[in-house]
Amino acid sequence: MHFLKQLVKPISLNKVINKKVCIAPVFCCLALISGCSTLVQVPALYETPPVISPDDAADDPAIWLNSAVPSQSLIFGTDKKSGVYSYNLQGETVGYTELGKINNIDTRSVDADTYIVASNRTQQSVDLWRFNDSAMGEAAAKGDFSLPATRFMQGQSEINIYGACMGLDKRLGLLAFVTEDEGPRVEVWKYTADGLKLLHTFDNGGESEGCVYDDENRTLLISEEEVNGVLRAYPVTEALDFSNPLIIDSREGNIGGDPEGVTLYKTSATEGYIILSSQGDSKFNLYNRTAPYAYLGSFEVGEVGTVDGVSITDGVAAINYPLNEDFPRGLLVVQDNDNISKTTRKPRRQNFKLISFSDVIEALQLK
Questions:
Q1: What is the 3-state secondary structure (H, E, C) of the chain?
Q2: Which pLDDT tens digit goes with each residue over 67-102?
């Protein structure tokens, strides 16, 4: 993640209430009187092609910032039955590699290198790749970048591996967190010159998948989907004591069904927003990045133009950096479960949608 370098006027967005465009407050009020939902919608500007595998396959995205040429940044997306795709900022495929059942993926850049971690359910391993940023940039400029089949490092997990996220902690270094399928355990891994080292395992209360690490605030956020349907925040210290989390939200609050993917949008070194996929009602919840993590509102990704709306989302990823004219205040990438065809109106194989964060900011009237 990178802090926003400049303020750019947001793209104008008409609010949509229950799929009825509100072009002025009076029309919004009329929509409310007629019983329409107040949940705002934002459009996806682009979408990726459907993944190769049928049924429930597309899962988790991650974003690599090309700091030298931001408009040539890359998006990674997992097909959890077969491998990993690479996309450009128009959602076009620039690479694909068969890697096995890769469920979740995340990135961190350190100095001039980028590290990519993924949860490998075929080998029950934590997979790690390392790339020089300039080499990635050259490949991105050619529109040709794929993760190699040979991993830089692998760590053999002791759990039935599921979700994964990365963190760059100022005390503990480069970390990876992996969650357990049909179980409550979470493993904490550390990158070392000698390989990936398992530091600690703790209990998150139930089956968990989505997670994100807040590097600057030293906080791990995990969505627990099975038992309680909660989003928890864990303060992280060298003691690795995960016994006292704070519950941010639950099914008794603003979460519908299972909480799934979770990501961060940073507005400063320590402030910004947490974005959570509320999978059961196909919406996205926003919370303050810092405790007490106030709920700020929710939005849907609606059908606009040639791109269909978004439903039952698994993974999400965001970045606050101004990338190009389409994404002047950053990018949000979300998985789409149904991926409805505009011509047949029937579900297709799953894919990922690209959303300008300017539209999210305007829709929810954020700062």
A1: CCCCCCCCCCCCCCEEECCEEECCHHHHHHHHHCCCCCCEEEECCEECCCCCCCCCCEEEEEEECCCCCHHHCEEEEEECCCEEEEECCCCCEEEEEECCCEEEEEEEEECCEEEEEEEECCCCEEEEEEEEHHHHHHHHHCCCCCCCCCCCEEEECCCCEEEEEEEEECCCEEEEEEEECCCCEEEEEEEECCEEEEEEEEECCCCEEEEEEECCCCEEEEEECCCCCEEEEEECCCCCCCCCCEEEECCCCCCCCCEEEEEEEECCCCCEEEEEEEHHHCEEEEEECCCCCCEEEEEEEECECCECCCCCCCCEEEECCCCCCCCCCCEEEEEECCCECCCCCCECCCEEEEEEHHHHHHHCCCC
A2: 999 999 999 999 999 999 999 999 999 999 999 999
